[in-house]
Amino acid sequence: MTLMLLDSASLWYRAYYGMPDTLQAPDGTPVNAIRGYLDMTARLVSIYKPNRLVACLDGDWRPMWRVELFPEYKANRLEEDGDEEEEPDTLTPQIPILLDLLDLFGIPVVGVDDFEADDVMATYAEIEKGPIRIVTGDRDLFQMVDDKRDIKVVYLAKGISQHDLVDLKYVSEKYQIPGERYALFAMFRGDPSDGLPGVRGIGEKGAALIANNFANVDDALAGAHANHEALTPALAKKIIAGSDYLKIAPTVVQVARNVPLPKTDLSMPQSPADLSAIYQFKERYGLGASVDRLISALGW
């Protein structure tokens, strides 16, 4: 009973930049992100054969409860006037069309106000039975990997055809840390893409050393104050100097696992008696074989 969680924005951005912008509907509307999203979803469903599926969205890409703790959170993605960084002009009109099509297919779409898609996926992973496959191009969800509960990340950084299936061994080998301590490692290392600096002066090697010797932030701080043998004086000094950041880092960096999710049937959509509405949509927007591939992958 595999549950597949789709990081929808991650997929449609990847599709938008990976598919030619010459793909257009008969009326000239760009559809490259839509077609790429459908193609990727069809491929993933065919590979992992989930019994449950949900497309997850940002209710808020920059939640205030994170910003209040750390004002610089994702501030690197803001325009100079403080507004949200705009999506590409030819991507924006595709998103409502895609969401309408997912609705026609009966694929549940879930976003919750004041939470990011990562939080939505993490909460589903926390409360639903495994196996669970989290599809994303974002490393943040590595913190959810759990071999006992069979929670893995389908990591799309290299694309669908060369994607990685991330388990604890993958995390451990890639970062040279205990696989279950990715969040701790990320707190110290930081994440420039989210505007998170980490602890000043501590890079990947220092963060890995800390994650190998301490289970959490409090342990690392205690070790630094106690001149723990694993820490050089310089590294201990940096940890102590970062105390203020480390007070808020766990809440900002760790995904929320308690999002108030709506009651939603996550079962794979069943074939409608009549596919004409989907076929009409396909013709209207020139979606060609991409719609057919998803129909086939769903076994309709």
From TrEMBL:
The processes (GO biological process) annotated in the record are:
DNA replication, Okazaki fragment processing
SUPFAM superfamilies referenced in this protein's UniProt entry, alphabetically: 5' to 3' exonuclease, C-terminal subdomain, PIN domain-like
- Cite the 5'-3' exonuclease domain residue spans from the record: 1-269
Q: Which InterPro entries match?
A: 5-3_exonucl_a-hlix_arch_N (IPR020046), 5-3_exonuclease (IPR002421), 5-3_exonuclease_C_sf (IPR036279), DNA_polI_H3TH (IPR020045), FEN (IPR038969), PIN-like_dom_sf (IPR029060)
Q: Molecular function (GO) terms listed? A: 5'-3' exonuclease activity; 5'-flap endonuclease activity; DNA binding
Sorted UniProt keywords: Hydrolase, Nuclease
Kindly give the Pfam families that the UniProt entry links to this protein: 5_3_exonuc, 5_3_exonuc_N
UniProt name for this protein:
Unannotated protein
Q: What is the lineage of its organism?
A: unclassified sequences, metagenomes, ecological metagenomes
